[in-house]
Structures are given as structure tokens and as C-alpha cells.
Amino acid sequence: MSRAFVKESDGGDGQELPELQVSPHRNLVTPSGLQQIEAMVGRLQAALSEARAEADRAQIARIQRDLRYWSERLRTVEVIAAPASADVVRFGSTVTLEKSDGETVEYRIVGEDEADPARGSISYVSPIASRLIGATEGDVVSVPEGKAMILGIR
Question: What's 50's domain CATH number?
């Protein structure tokens, strides 16, 4: 049977929950990314206290698993300050691109845990970010829709 049709345990039936996979890449984060991870650990610690008070074993198991993941991410953070100059695309840069259809799009290159593509934040290990890093204003890069020119870096 395909794994897609097997119900994942919630930890309440005594089965151990599968661990969340930690990325093999360096855990680079912006200063705001560090704040997000610290806040997540704090929220999970508070939620764990509540779940223990309610003796909710399934909830305790889920929260402990998530707390292990986020504690590991916090332990391994490498905070990268904002780029000092905007001459070359780097981690933390915000890049404005003009696509071949004339549409402009903006991406900010951030850590994996703080990436939110719908809001324009992309992971530094994403295919688009890997094409952008090291590029300069005026360079043309490949994007899923074709080609795009870098209009600005900040």
C-alpha cells in the first residue's frame, strides 16, 4: 500500500511520531529569522506546559517532537547581518527583477525556516536564489517563466 494512504500516528496511540527532518544545509538566518525561531521555541515551551497540565499525551508527543526540531534549529543558527553593500546579490539581499513579460517581482534571500515565497522571501538554497547570488544589477538570470533582468539590489 502506498504511504500516501497510511494514517500517520499522532502519538496518542503509543506509537512514536516520526521526527521532523532537519535540513542538511547550513542554518543561515537573518536577525529577524533568529527572532522567529526564538519565538517559536518559546511558544512551543508554553504549549508543552499546557499540554502537560491537561495530561494530553498525543499533544505532548507532537509538541515535544516540534520542540526538538526547533531547538536544534536554534542551536545551529548562523546569524548573517544585512549585506554592507548592494553591489552584488548576497544572503539577505532584496532583489528586484523584471521578467520578459515586463512584470517586476521582488525576492528577499533568507534562511530556509524564514522563507515565505508567497510574500517574496525565498530560501538561499532555492533554485532561484542560487541563480541570483553573486549576480549584479543588469545581469539576466533564468527564472521559471524564462529570463529576468536584475533591476536593483538592496
Answer: 1.10.287.180
